[in-house]
Amino acid sequence: MRFTVENSESGRLGCLRDFERSPYTSLETPTSALLAQAGSVVHLTADVLARVFKTPHLLWLPLTSCYQLEAGTKAQGDGIAKFSGLPQHITCATFQNISDNLPTGHFELDKVPLWTKNGKKMITAERYMELMEIFKPDIILAIADGRIALDEGPKRIFKSVERTQKMLDICVEKYKESKALHSSGLVGVIVGAGDLRRLEKSIKYTLKHKENLIGISLNGIGDCSDQILTTPVKRLEDIFRTVAALVPPEMLKILEGCWYPNVIVTAIEHGWDVFDGSLPLKMTNMGYALRLNCDINKPILSVYALDMKLKRYNNTFTPLLKGCECLTCKKHSRAYIHHLLVTKEMLASVLLNIHNLHNFDQLFIKAREHIALKTFHLFKQHIIQQCLMIEPLETSTTNQPVQSQQQQKKFCAKSLNNNTEGS
Amino acid sequence: MASASALQFNVEAECSTTKARTGLMKLPHYNVRTPVFMPVGTQGTMKGLLPEQLEDLDCEIILGNTYHLGNRPGINVLQKAGGLHNFMGWKRALLTDSGGFQMVSLLKLAEITEEGVKFRSPYDNSEIMLTPEKSIEIQNSIGADIIMQLDDVVRTTFQDYDRIKEATERTSRWLDRCLKAHKRPFDQSIFPIVQGLLNKDLRIQSATEHMTKQVNGFAIGGLSGGEAKDDFWPIVTLGTDLLHRDKPRYLMGVGVAIDLVICVALGVDMFDCVFPTRTARFGCALVTRGQLNLKQKQYETDLNPIDKDCNCSTCKTYTRAYLHCVVSVETVACHLISVHNISFQMHLMKTMRDNIKNGTFPQYVKTFMKEVYNDGKYPTWIIKSLLSVGINILEN
Ligand SMILES: [Zn+2]
Ligand SMILES: [Zn+2]
């Protein structure tokens, strides 16, 4: 596979192509992957996903939930995309989702803890690459000790850089030796973002393997979604600048994490190409509908996310987002989705995720259009403005139960001030 | 009272040996081919499946639960939505139950009087009375093509004759009240429920009484509640013997493949059951021989689909090994197995309809039973029930 990119003043347009498994597929960047669990886009069967997206997308596959697929995928021998029923999509494997709210646990030399459904497993770089040979993803993010908060102590940051470097050496070595992975692209994971000098070191070390890497991914910027969501944008921009200054422009740049849309457009401006798709799923699991207004000619009338559990939607017969072309909005009302949420029916998550993935995808489609037209700065402002209209998301667990009355009231009052009823 | 615009039933072919028949039931929202299995979508949704998926699975009519829908979203919302069809985005036919069964089975404190079923709301603990009139009012708001009368529910294994008699007769009185309260006879058909539990005289009394009413179809209730199979089938066959030949007969709460085959042979046209979707939630996939519990370790590297002859999207795309990995972990597992299980039920019914039409139904029943009981050890109720309609499965 190959990554080609054209840089522009504000953001850049790229293309992932020449995948051995699907030679006619190309993915335009900037883009967001579809976050998967155990190989499936969460809540959506292959049959439903095919109704939502007609073209191949990038699947984001954290090992945390794919670990359990080892025996079956190995027996079948055709890799994880085929085994998971989504052979037409492009796969990107990663060790873990840095936005997952998981325990951190102790570390051992040369091993990173993986929190699978059957408990903690200590994984070495060798073991990780052995699993990759079975899963045969199109893109592999090297194993890293990357789930670290930005404000971690210097010792922890130092260790994570050290450990990640050592493991990268092994990953690259195994990657070069592997026949099964000759057509996959390897991505080096940089860490140490909590200390810019350490970050520089991590980048420089990673680039020693440049000829074997198609790109880099940034870790060490958080260890759970609560914290990622509250990272000050200024601090992130310093990190982005450090990365941009050191990483050669032809390399693919991946930003993992559950970020608000304002951070995403800022990151796109700084030249980040791929995002992991955590935000729409988090919204879905919290019972929120994304409603990003991606048309800069349309006035911003409302917040960009609605809490569909709020009682006031119980008899609103409009779609989640007026004019949205998704399967959910073309057929179903807010009242129905509210009903499914309060009765805890599984279809609530299916319908919300269909819409949220569609709406989030629009953000990237429009971002690419504006980069091409050299009007990205206008688009960025348009998105940031919508983000200023809302309180931060409730941020505890992903499968959060219905909010308390008090929280609902608070949210309601705030939202009403901002004229959330929408058009 | 009953209007032909709400339901027209045409028997298109009858088996010359058994009592099985196949036909077309024309309902306001869809023409349903019988015998039919109706999957249960309790709260206005079918276990995580999109309405489009249900259409692709050839579901022609599904069931909603009045008790649940009356609570949430409630009549006001349903009326404002223009009925359950619009609310859930389902264009084909719907049937709603009366709410009585749910209430008695879900709420231990329900008290039944001549007026109706009195119970405490599990939502705010207030006292609520579900009368026949109220049940019909809610069902009129939901707007299903077929609605059920409120009946006096007694547990199937209950023994007290006086109470069974009271319930049977009260059910008939409540039928009159339901029919009187019905506001939409032109696009909704009320089905009376034949009661009497396992007592043949009471069953005859109930059916005879209900058949004097102007209605479009009948249900046989009070079965499939834990009674012995030897007690079950004679009541079914008594029901189909008694009820009008030209009206659809609905056997409530039956949906396991073997029971479906037997009861189609005994002349039943409609079935419903939560079993196929409920069992999917526990990781069990239906196959002719019974079910596969996909959680079992033996499927870890089994690269076969659930059923190689099944045409459902799950079987075309996924292996047992993959399903084994995601069962009880990911929501998609539940959706995937539900798709297969509903497909299994739909396929079974279609196969029976085709065989009835082709005059090969008795042979089909024999082949089916041989596949299920490949050791030839048939339960006696199966031998006897089939013998009663002219099929001797012990001879080839
Ligand atoms: Zn939508
Ligand atoms: Zn199947």
TrEMBL record, chain A:
Annotated stretches, region: Disordered: 398-423
Note accompanying the cofactor annotation? Binds 1 zinc ion per subunit.
Which is a Pfam family this sequence falls into? TGT
One example GO MF annotation: tRNA-guanosine(34) queuine transglycosylase activity
Q: Name one GO biological process term.
A: tRNA modification
Key word Ligase present = no
Q: Which InterPro entries match?
A: QTRTD1, Queuine_tRNA-ribosyltrfase, TGT-like_sf, tRNA_ribo_trans-like
Q: What is this protein called?
A: Queuine tRNA-ribosyltransferase accessory subunit 2
Q: What is the originating organism of this protein?
A: Leptosia nina
Q: What is the lineage of its organism?
A: Eukaryota, Metazoa, Ecdysozoa, Arthropoda, Hexapoda
Automatic annotation (TrEMBL), chain B:
Q: Which residues form the active site?
A: 97 (proton acceptor), 272 (nucleophile)
Intracellular or extracellular location(s): Cytoplasm
**Domain tRNA-guanine(15) transglycosylase-like, which positions?**
18-372
Q: Which SUPFAM superfamilies match?
A: tRNA-guanine transglycosylase (SSF51713)
Q: Does the keyword Metal-binding apply?
A: yes
Listed GO CC annotations: cytosol
Region (RNA binding), start-end ranges: 253-259, 277-281
Required co-factors: Zn(2+)
Gene Ontology biological process terms, A to Z: tRNA modification
User: Where is substrate bound in this sequence?
Assistant: 97-101, 151, 195, 222
Record: residues binding Zn(2+): 310, 312, 315, 340
**Record carries keyword Nucleus:** no
The cross-references to Pfam families, in alphabetical order and at most eight, read: TGT
EC no.? 2.4.2.64
* Catalytic reaction annotation: guanosine(34) in tRNA + queuine = queuosine(34) in tRNA + guanine
Q: Which UniProt keywords apply?
A: Cytoplasm, Glycosyltransferase, Metal-binding, Transferase, tRNA processing, Zinc
Parts of the chain that traverse the membrane: none
Database matches in Gene3D superfamilies: Queuine tRNA-ribosyltransferase-like (3.20.20.105)
- Subunit: Heterodimer of a catalytic subunit and an accessory subunit.
NCBIfam families from the entry?
Answer: Q_tRNA_tgt, tgt_general
Indicate the family of this protein: Belongs to the queuine tRNA-ribosyltransferase family.
Please give the function described in this protein's UniProt entry.
Catalytic subunit of the queuine tRNA-ribosyltransferase (TGT) that catalyzes the base-exchange of a guanine (G) residue with queuine (Q) at position 34 (anticodon wobble position) in tRNAs with GU(N) anticodons (tRNA-Asp, -Asn, -His and -Tyr), resulting in the hypermodified nucleoside queuosine (7-(((4,5-cis-dihydroxy-2-cyclopenten-1-yl)amino)methyl)-7-deazaguanosine). Catalysis occurs through a double-displacement mechanism. The nucleophile active site attacks the C1' of nucleotide 34 to detach the guanine base from the RNA, forming a covalent enzyme-RNA intermediate.
Q: Which HAMAP family match?
A: Q_tRNA_Tgt (MF_00168)
Question: Mind telling me what this protein is named?
Answer: Queuine tRNA-ribosyltransferase catalytic subunit 1
Q: Which organism is it from?
A: Leptosia nina
